[in-house]
Design brief:
This protein is an alpha+beta fold and about 180 residues long. The protein has 2 domains: about 60 residues; about 110 residues, H-NOX domain. The chain is built from 8 helices and 4 strands, in the order H-H-H-H-H-H-H-E-E-H-E-E. Strands 1-2-4-3 form a 4-stranded antiparallel β-sheet. The radius of gyration is 17 Å and the shape is globular. The chain starts with a helix and ends in a 7-residue tail after the last strand. It binds protoporphyrin IX containing FE. The site of protoporphyrin IX containing FE (HEM) has 29 residues, from helix 1, helix 4, helix 5, helix 7 and strand 2.
């Protein structure tokens, strides 16, 4: 997985835990490269899971919730890093519909060795659904990205996990918040 994601994970840990604890997390995760990441490098995706697991052990936090918070943080970093990719969309739905066909395709142009996950959308009786698929198993990060995308557009919607979702294949259902009716 691209170093960019790891660089932002380290920034997230620094922001949440401070430098000193982040240093101890890195030691506890015992990564071969001491968590020295560059944005253009490529690293085994389990390094990210190892870092989050070590941080969760050390702080008593829930690893899945930490991944969701990281997803929210990551979306905000994407706003700064890729403003040209986000600026053409005017709603969460529009952006989410174009992650697969445009955003992650552009990512592959910027980083030819990238292999982003599959992110598809559709509407059915249950609501508007985003489906994430990736052997890397970062569904909780995907959930945080989707949730922050909705906040970014100040939309009053709730995101819930469809039952049967797993770390490698998950569906998120987006519905207008109770008491709020779409125009
Ligand atoms: C806001 C625009 C977005 C940008 C610029 C972006 C960019 C990226 C980049 C650069 C990577 C690393 C790819 C690699 O290492 O091969 C990535 C991976 C990922 N993207 Fe996106 N992405 C965006 C939106 C989203 C959204 C909305 C989702 C939600 C489903 C998503 C889900 C993920 C996940 C979970 C990964 C981690 C790798 C994996 O699970 O296989 N992305 N994205």
């Amino acid at each position: 997985m691209k170093g960019l994601i790891f660089v932002e994970l380290m920034n997230f840990l620094d922001e949440q835990l401070g430098d000193a604890i982040t240093e101890r997390v890195v030691e506890a995760a015992s990564l071969p490269n001491d968590a020295a990441f560059t944005t253009v490098g490529n690293y085994p995706s389990h390094y990210a899971a190892d870092l989050v697991a070590a941080a969760a052990r050390m702080t008593g936090a829930d690893a899945a919730l930490m991944c969701e918070d990281f997803g929210r943080f990551l979306f905000q970093r994407f706003q700064t890093r890729f403003p040209h990719l986000l600026s053409r969309y005017t709603s969460a739905r529009e952006l989410l519909e174009h992650v697969q066909g445009h955003i992650h395709e552009e990512v592959k142009v910027i980083y030819p060795d990238a292999s982003p996950p599959q992110v598809e959308t559709h509407s059915d009786i249950e609501g508007y659904t985003v489906t994430y698929r990736s052997g890397r198993g970062f569904a909780h990060i995907a959930y945080g990205l989707v949730a922050q995308c909705i906040s970014f557009y100040s939309e009053q919607s709730d995101v819930s996990w469809k039952s049967g979702s797993t770390d490698t294949q998950a569906c998120f259902i987006i519905r207008p918040r109770k008491g709020i009716y779409p125009l």
